[in-house]
Specification:
The protein has 159 residues and is of the alpha+beta class. It has 2 domains: 76 residues, Ubiquitin-like (UB roll) (Roll); 65 residues, [2Fe-2S]-binding domain (DNA polymerase, domain 1), CATH 1.10.150. Helices cover 30% and strands 16% of the residues. It has 5 helices and 5 strands. Strands 2-1-5-3-4 form a 5-stranded mixed β-sheet, sandwiched between helices.
């Protein structure tokens, strides 16, 4: 087994130093070391999107990324989306428009929607479907999730 090394990450705006094995998954660091349990482990194979986070603004499956690969990166988890006073517009849209069911996939869906809306503030339905296609939901037919994202895209302040 390899020895532990020191890694620095900026998670939700805070710089953190971790002592970890270089191949430790980012998912495990987020959930265990930081207790940010909004990031879920679904399949552990990068197929379901439940573990989605933003690394330097790019949507990734944290179950596939070793901590050594993201050293010195900026990580945004679902806990970093809202501020202490209110939900982010996309979270409000999911809540108000039925985009969340059991909630297991919701953090990954929200982060995928954020990633899309930052790159494309006015997507059409097909673009939303494509952007969220890496996230699986076992509760819905996706219609409300797509609608929630489209409704948010029409709001004046998406971020």
């Amino acid at each position: 087994m390899s020895h532990k090394e020191e890694f620095t990450l900026k998670i939700n705006g805070e710089t953190k130093v971790f002592l970890a094995h270089p191949m430790e998954r980012l998912l495990d660091t987020i959930r265990s070391d930081e207790n940010l349990t909004g990031t879920k482990e679904g399949c552990g194979e990068g197929e379901c999107g439940a573990c989605s986070v933003l690394v330097n603004g790019k949507l990734v499956n944290s179950c596939l990324i070793p901590i050594s690969q993201v050293a010195s990166s900026e990580i945004e988890t679902i806990e970093g989306v809202a501020n202490s006073e209110s939900l982010a517009p996309i979270q409000k849209s999911f809540l108000e428009n039925g985009g969340a069911q059991c909630g297991f996939c919701t953090p990954g869906m929200v982060l995928a929607a954020i990633s899309l809306l930052r790159d494309n503030p006015a997507p059409n339905l097909e673009e939303v479907k494509t952007a969220l296609s890496g996230n699986l939901c076992r509760c819905t037919g996706y219609k409300k999730i797509f609608e929630s994202t489209l409704i948010c895209s029409q709001m004046e302040d998406q971020q």
